[in-house]
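Long-time lurker. I teach an intro course on protein structure, and each term I like to show students one example going from raw sequence to a predicted 3D structure in token notation. This year I'd like something fresh instead of my usual example. Would anyone be willing to generate the tokens for the chain below so I can use it in lecture? Attribution to the forum is fine with me.
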Amino acid sequence: MRHKISRQLNNVNEPSLRIDYSWVQLVQLTSKKDSHMRELENLIEHYVSIRRRRHSFISTGLAVKALKQLVPACSVSDSDLANMIANRAIDYNLPVSFDLNES
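-- Reply from a regular --
Happy to contribute to a lecture. Here you go:
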């Protein structure tokens, strides 16, 4: 039995039995992107939560500026970020001022 297992392990280097691990890099990139999006969503949640206690509406322009200061290398476009902020504000029943280009 041992001899059979060791022979199978020795055959691992044969080209026909090599395992392709390129998908691992894709999974790592995807998980980094997912992690980035979760962090961004948490920041948006925190921003809207704080602003709703002090103000009666959310300005997408000011919110995008604030979040871009916290995460300058954010890969999400300003308009997509504004939509994410607006969606979260709507979840809290807050009015949204879509003033991204004005501020």
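Some talking points for your students: The beta strands are 58-59, 96-97. The two ends are 74 Å apart (CA to CA).
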